[in-house]
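TL;DR need structure tokens for one chain.
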Amino acid sequence: MSTKSRENGSQQTPAIVSFISGGVAGAVEGAATYPFEFAKTRVQLRSERGVPTPRNPFTVVGQVLREEGVRALYKGCSTLVVGSIGKDGVRFLSFDTIKNYFKDPETGTLTPVRSLLAGMSAGVVASIFAVTPTERIKTALIDDARAERRFRSPMHAVRLIYQEHGLINGLYRGFAGNTLKQASASAFRMGTYNILKDFENTRNITQSTATNFANGAVAGTVTTYATMPFDTIKTRSQSAKGASTIEAFTSIMKDDGVRGFWRGTTMRLGRTIFSGGILFTMYEQVAAVLNPMFGR
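>> reply
TL;DR here they are.
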């Protein structure tokens, strides 16, 4: 990906540019949209005894502001931002690398299927190396803040979870659900964005900030509706107490039926529309600055 339309298929974004641009974009996007993520996660978590969770994410935001203050809406934010730097750095690096092998050598474009496959592969790589452990800590912090308040900080949460459950059953709890979510989300988000961008480039539509943001917002909308069940299962699996993917699936069906898999859609949609626009716009802008520095 680059800021300007490609004139030929030989142009490639240097790996270091993909990684840095993706990391910076992920950090900005994560911090800017975190309250949406917080509310969505609270809605998806199972209600504790004596601590009922409202089903409306806007009610969650109002309740948290009244009872816990503005800072509470950013509980777990630092973990998500750190995770987003790694996640999006790895994801963009993987996507651009895989895309270079898949693209048409003459036009530099990908078929829709290859765009989705490149995005899916990037999501799996990101889940293994960055997303699963950071999502586990973020979700555990948000869940813990509802009642027990055992975790004093993200690092304290890491140490406690590792001591009590180990690496695989602790920090990588929910790996299956998280990887399914990341693979599908990256396939739809990055695949849709690339399909739209290739469509525009073949028709000489100028790539501007507005175009990048609009493409990212459309990609975010498609991603939300297509991957919401995986996100809900992932959240239940990575709660403070933890649960297997099967246990998470069963508890959702027991509590809310099939509709439960789309709990928190409104708030996640609000986040992904803006986050998609912010993420891809920031990526393109940072890449435009870095490409000349690294020989593009």
